[in-house]
Amino acid sequence: MTSFDATADDPTEALAETLKERLAGQETPRLLVVAGSGLGGFARSVDARLTIPYSELPGVGSSTVAGHSGTLVCGRTGNTPLLLMNGRRHLYEGMPAARNTALLRAILLATGVPVVVLSNAAGGLNPTFEVGDLMLISDHINMTFRNPLIGPNRDDWGPRFPDASALYSPRLRVLAREAALKAGVPVREGVYLAGLGPSYETRAEVSMLRTVMGADAVGMSTAPETLAATHMGREVLGISFISNLLTVPAKTTHDEVMENSRRVEEKFTKLVTAFIAELG
Ligand code: HPA
Questions:
Q1: 8-state DSSP, 60
Q2: In this structure, which residue's CA is closest to atom 3 in ligand 1?
Q3: Whether residue 218 has its Cβ less than 6 Å from ligand 1
Q4: pTM to 2 decimals?
Q5: Which superfamily is assigned to 12-279 in CATH?
């Protein structure tokens, strides 16, 4: 019988070494931004010094989903050096959660970046939400039933049983609210529910997620990344953009999600840029 070794094909450390080599000579980034579905517009606003396609990073592979590009960008927003993951892997693509977050973790290992901004497109469950709203994530409900921390724990990365009572940094949310005010971008705040996808929700699920679980928005990402990043002691800001409303009896399509995300790109870019200035 062969023994089980969940770390045997974990590409994280090899990836971190590759990244150290590729990023040598670049400024130390102050934060990492992960641009979700259709929010790549922020990438165009970054003063890029180096762009690395995921295809050049062993074990990552580019995203298989239309609307998600796959590049790691090293550059600046204003005077702040940062890294941008333009495109991410999703659990519905089939990789285990630990593999799914390998690139994110490798970036954190390689650069020591202390702050991670995660963004996503999400369906609105809160009846007061409108398409195009931006929502600061106050907390999440992980209904993917996957956790990137399953497997042997790397005690040098973080604790076996990490606290999850404040995954989304209250300090960063205060800064984001101040940034939103200064930029004139209204923001909501609420609970993000992560599902596995790739199907959108049934009417019965929508009803349960809202009335039983109290979620404000639902998407297919972010929770695994938040768990991986906070495990490593990093501060996380989460931003959802409401790409469609589940509170109305209409069909949801990926085209609708992508179309609406393009319409919100400018607002999203304004908010993240103002947040980065506030972060200093
Ligand atoms: N449900 C799940 N994920 C999503 C949605 C949705 O309605 N919109 C964008 N991502």
A1: T
A2: 219
A3: yes
A4: 0.94
A5: Nucleoside phosphorylase domain (3.40.50.1580)
